[in-house]
């Protein structure tokens, strides 16, 4: 705009710094995603930025037990492979945990009365003059260069055995109604606050603006108390889906009313006046004129509310509880952080599942989101 | 799946009930006070009455919900703060005395103040810088979209992402956390970052800055584009350089927007809870008010009185912003 004419050096610096910032902002999420599709053995020993490089791993496997021995050329032999599924390469091996890298591949090692040999492709032979005995096979320590492996196993595991699948459904169950109910209630109120004259209107608007910033924390204890009473009265307990839908409705309503009122108040007054002159009632005006015209604002709020409810942890923990069958995705992730703190293959895959839906909504409907943000803040 | 189906049915029922309420109550009003086919005098009277009642049919549900879920709880929290564990016996100022006498409170208050200073400042600053740069390059929109993206990620998801970055392995094991890997690469000593008292607060704040910068950027970018070109052209003619134009011409014109962004993030910061809960749960000197309140709500079966007192403190911190907001909104309406 202004500086573009002032030499290309400055422009270059600008491109470089924006690129740097973009990388800085995307790398955390990228790291999470890449980690979630890596093999879990590789994930735990090397950083995700090495995902494409061959990784060197120190592993230990037990050889086949003596029941598999065969008599060949006058010796008892056990044959097997240490890397049955991967196309890795063994560089060194050992036969005791004290010296796991003692020998090069191909070397013939004496161990008690046996001779052990390990080859680069993972094949090993254990041979002996006498018949071998014992219940278990020998342990072989080896260092292998494993090529990068990507897999969806982590996702399969968290969706089934870690309960993420159930939580996904719970999150949907909470989010969809909690997004739609406040829109309906707010749209009517917004119309009345924008275009109908009645005493107390200014006070109500001021009230909504005030409630906009009331911290959620103020509501938790009184509502929990009331919910306990109501739940007891109906004998259904205090943690119900209806309860959390209404709670989210209440907490989202100030923003909904505020956003929609601003938008609806900005619609051209002539349309509404002429409809009134034609004898349309306020209900008809709302239904036939206001609702269709306010679609952008309704969409903006719907996206906000959806993201907020889907990403919420506090309200879900207080009003839906922490029991297994009610946990939403955020609650489940928090629980996994506690119980599987070091298992990054579980955590990264779970985290990605919890953020994938909001990310899709975000990239798909970004236009409306931005419009809503601008309407809600700059006025 | 059955659960989802029942949720859908409930949702449809709920929506229908809402629609039925609005439709039914309006129809009832029209039936009680008909505005057609009556003597003119009566029609005028009926319309007057109906017009007085109808607004309340429209705002009724919203007012009810707001009263029950936000207005009444504020008052009830205030009353509860003078009551004991179960919220039944009156204990006077005991909860307040406890609060102001406890070290935990000073720790979380201090941390909250740190958050309040650092996060809005950093997010607004980065947002402003990025907005002004991306507006001038051809791939600016892609860049903005990517920096805006963390907005869509939950606090708890973001906490996992960053916990992975701060991950620490003891001994000679290779570091799989990005930060420690970088530290090792440059010859430093790896650290368990989130357990280092005081500084760990900043590692937690980074997460919120990462999330909120996009918000600041989007709004400030719109404001920057709204600046009239003439003011900038005039400055260029007068020989001002890029930096001068930015700080002396552009920034002063968007002060109002900067203030809005600042206060919006400030309010969010006051309520920050998920990040602290997930990263440290208040250990190693990172406690904040919202997490402390949650803790007291459920600790040992829950202490409603003490929880309410902490909520009141958060509320008191919000009040100045609330008053400013209402004043601003009123000024706008008068300007219309």
From TrEMBL, chain A:
The keyword Lipoprotein does not apply. The chain crosses the membrane at residues 12-34, 174-195, 202-221, 241-260, 289-310, 346-365. The keyword Zinc does not apply. Residues 168-365 form the ABC transmembrane type-1 domain. It is found in: Cell membrane. PROSITE patterns: ABC_TM1. GO terms for biological process: transmembrane transport. Keywords: Cell membrane, Membrane, Transmembrane, Transmembrane helix, Transport. CDD domains: TM_PBP2 (cd06261). Its main location: membrane. It is a multi-pass membrane protein. One of its GO terms (cellular component) is plasma membrane. Coiled coil: none annotated. Belongs to the binding-protein-dependent transport system permease family. This is Carbohydrate ABC transporter permease. It comes from Maribrevibacterium harenarium.
UniProtKB/TrEMBL annotation, chain B:
The chain crosses the membrane at residues 56-75, 114-134, 146-166, 202-224, 245-270, 304-326. Residues 109-325 form the ABC transmembrane type-1 domain. The keyword Cell wall biogenesis/degradation does not apply. One of its GO terms (cellular component) is plasma membrane. It is found in: Cell membrane. It is a multi-pass membrane protein. Keywords: Cell membrane, Membrane, Transmembrane, Transmembrane helix, Transport. Gene3D superfamilies: MetI-like (1.10.3720.10). GO terms for biological process: transmembrane transport. InterPro entries: ABC_transporter_permease, MetI-like, MetI-like_sf. The keyword Transport applies. Belongs to the binding-protein-dependent transport system permease family. This is Sugar ABC transporter permease. The lineage of its organism: Bacteria, Pseudomonadati, Pseudomonadota, Gammaproteobacteria, Oceanospirillales.
């Amino acid at each position: 705009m202004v500086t573009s004419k002032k030499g290309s050096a400055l422009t270059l610096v600008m491109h470089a710094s924006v690129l740097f910032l973009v990388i800085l902002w995307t790398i955390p999420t990228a790291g999470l995603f890449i980690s979630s599709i890596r093999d879990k053995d590789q994930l735990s020993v090397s950083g995700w930025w090495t995902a494409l490089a061959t990784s060197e791993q120190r592993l230990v496997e037990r050889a086949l037990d003596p029941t598999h021995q065969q008599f060949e050329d006058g010796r008892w032999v056990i044959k097997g492979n240490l890397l049955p599924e991967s196309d890795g390469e063994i560089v060194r091996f050992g036969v005791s945990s004290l010296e796991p890298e003692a020998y090069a591949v191909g070397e013939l090692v004496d161990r008690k009365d046996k001779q052990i040999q390990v080859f680069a492709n993972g094949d090993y032979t254990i041979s002996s003059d006498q018949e071998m005995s014992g219940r278990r096979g020998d342990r072989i320590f080896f260092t292998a260069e494993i090529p990068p492996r990507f897999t969806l196993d982590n996702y399969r595991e968290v969706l089934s055995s870690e309960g993420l699948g159930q939580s996904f459904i719970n999150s949907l169950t909470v989010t969809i109604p909690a997004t739609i109910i406040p829109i309906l209630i707010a749209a009517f109120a917004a119309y009345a606050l924008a275009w109908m004259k009645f005493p107390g209107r200014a006070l109500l608007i001021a009230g909504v603006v005030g409630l906009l910033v009331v911290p959620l924390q103020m509501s938790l204890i009184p509502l929990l108390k009331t919910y306990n009473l109501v739940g007891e009265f109906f004998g259904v307990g205090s943690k119900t889906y209806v309860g959390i839908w209404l709670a989210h409705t209440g907490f989202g309503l100030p923003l909904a009313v505020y956003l929609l009122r601003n938008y609806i108040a900005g619609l051209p007054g002539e349309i509404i006046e002429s409809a009134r002159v034609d004898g349309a009632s306020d209900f008809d005006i709302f239904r036939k004129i206001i609702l269709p015209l306010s679609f952008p604002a309704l969409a903006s709020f719907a996206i906000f509310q959806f993201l907020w409810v889907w990403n919420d942890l506090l309200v879900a923990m207080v009003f839906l509880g922490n029991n297994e069958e009610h946990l939403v995705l955020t609650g489940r992730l928090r629980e996994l952080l506690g119980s599987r703190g070091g298992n990054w293959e579980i955590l990264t895959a779970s985290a990605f599942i919890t953020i994938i839906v909001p990310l899709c909504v975000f990239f798909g409907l970004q236009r409306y989101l931005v419009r809503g943000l601008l309407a809600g803040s700059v006025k | 799946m059955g659960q989802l189906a029942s949720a859908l049915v409930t949702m449809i029922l709920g929506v229908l009930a809402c629609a039925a309420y609005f439709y039914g109550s309006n129809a009832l009003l029209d039936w009680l006070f008909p505005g057609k086919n009556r003597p003119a005098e009566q029609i005028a009277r009926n319309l007057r009455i109906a017009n007085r009642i109808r607004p309340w049919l429209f705002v009724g549900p919203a007012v009810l919900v707001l009263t029950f879920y936000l207005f009444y709880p504020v008052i009830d929290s205030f009353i509860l703060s003078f009551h004991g564990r179960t919220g039944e016996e009156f204990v006077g100022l005991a909860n307040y005395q406890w609060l102001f006498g406890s070290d935990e409170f000073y720790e979380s208050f201090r941390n909250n103040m740190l958050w309040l200073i650092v996060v809005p400042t950093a997010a607004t600053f980065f947002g402003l810088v990025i907005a002004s740069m991306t507006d001038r390059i051809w791939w600016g929109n892609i860049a903005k979209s990517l920096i805006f993206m963390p907005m869509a990620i939950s606090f708890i998801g973001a906490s996992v992402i960053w916990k992975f970055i701060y991950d620490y392995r003891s001994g000679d094991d290779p570091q799989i956390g990005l930060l420690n890997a970088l530290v090792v690469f440059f010859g430093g000593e790896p650290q368990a970052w989130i357990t280092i008292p005081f500084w760990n607060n900043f590692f937690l704040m980074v997460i919120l800055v990462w999330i909120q910068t996009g918000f600041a950027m989007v709004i400030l970018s719109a404001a920057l584009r709204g600046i009239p070109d003439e003011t900038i052209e005039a400055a260029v003619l007068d020989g001002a350089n890029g930096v001068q134009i930015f700080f002396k011409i552009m920034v002063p014109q968007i002060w109002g927007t900067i203030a809005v962004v600042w206060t919006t993030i400030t309010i969010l910061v006051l309520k920050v809870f998920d990040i602290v809960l997930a990263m440290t749960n208040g250990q190693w000197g990172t406690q904040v008010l919202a997490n402390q309140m949650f803790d007291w709500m459920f600790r040992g079966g829950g202490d409603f009185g003490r929880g309410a007192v902490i909520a009141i403190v958060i509320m008191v911190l919000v009040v100045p912003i609330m008053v400013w907001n209402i004043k601003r909104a009123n000024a706008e309406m008068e300007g219309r």
